[in-house]
Q: What sequence folds into this?
DNA sequence: ATATAAATAGTCAAAGAAGGTCAAAAAATG
DNA sequence: CATTTTTTGACCTTCTTTGACTATTTATAT
């Protein structure tokens, strides 16, 4: 018997294909359509539509709320970009992060100005209030989020 | 399902654009136009036309009363950034930070692309590995560092 | 002038409408 | 049978809508 998670995953992917890259869903509506609890939708999104899978997710609560799942552009330059993003890993030092950013600039995937802003965001001064054990993890998240944002 | 709040927000912004910076509305008239209770207008103003969003609101009650929503005049980017940097304090919420960034974009002090990168850097997804008590502090540092970088 | 009515706008809290989190239970997998 | 993945549900947070009550200003009738 097909897993519900897979069914919902497929359903969302169909919407993404039909609309050319983006699905805007309502959690409760989708849950009742598939006869499951709402949090199952979160499970599907959390396991099948992650950054690693090439998706970017946004949401809003309250009346008229929704969840938007965007597929990252799959054109050639972005494949390479995505590859680099994935190579960053869960944790990264300031030095390594800056090297990556410089690299992106060199390959002209981002502008020098983008690079400046990004380096300011991941610098040790910016992260000084974090607990030392977390700093490199936070830095990796920030870096990936900034880069992802540019390709969705 | 479109939120009424967004519809009203857009309506007011159109007036502001048409008149070059100021909308003078009547609360009850607007409410009946959009078929809602008058206090909804206050809600829209209170959530979408705050100082942080770059607006200044005045009103009068009684016969011929009205609400005036003015767009705050812009000063030099350097001054705006510096002012914000100084006024941010040690800690800031994602909501407030994003409002400031959007404001800079609206006033063309930074590009939409810059804004996207910055919002990605201060978003809760980017800071999820931080300890909850620190998040707003880290966010403030990141924002200040990015802005500083642009004026130095 | 003064009191009263009418016309506005403001405040605040409750109800409603989403979505999020986390951990336990159940099912599938190897 | 141990481990991983999926399903479920209780509880939480955020945002919007609504309405009862309050405050202020102007108009009108003594």
A:
């Amino acid at each position: 018997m097909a897993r519900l998670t897979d069914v919902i995953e497929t359903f969302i992917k169909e919407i993404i294909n039909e609309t050319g890259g983006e699905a805007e869903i309502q959690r409760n509506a989708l849950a009742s359509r598939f006869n499951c609890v709402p949090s199952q939708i979160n499970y599907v999104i959390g396991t099948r539509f992650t950054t690693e899978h090439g998706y970017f997710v946004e949401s809003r609560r309250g009346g008229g709320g929704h969840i938007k799942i965007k597929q990252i552009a799959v054109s050639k330059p972005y494949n390479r970009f995505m590859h680099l993003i994935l190579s960053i890993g869960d944790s990264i030092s300031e030095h390594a992060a800056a090297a990556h950013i410089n690299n992106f600039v060199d390959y002209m995937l981002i502008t020098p100005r983008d690079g400046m802003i990004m380096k300011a965001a991941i610098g040790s001064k910016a992260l000084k209030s974090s607990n030392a054990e977390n700093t490199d993890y936070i830095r990796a998240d920030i870096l990936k989020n900034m880069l992802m944002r540019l390709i969705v």
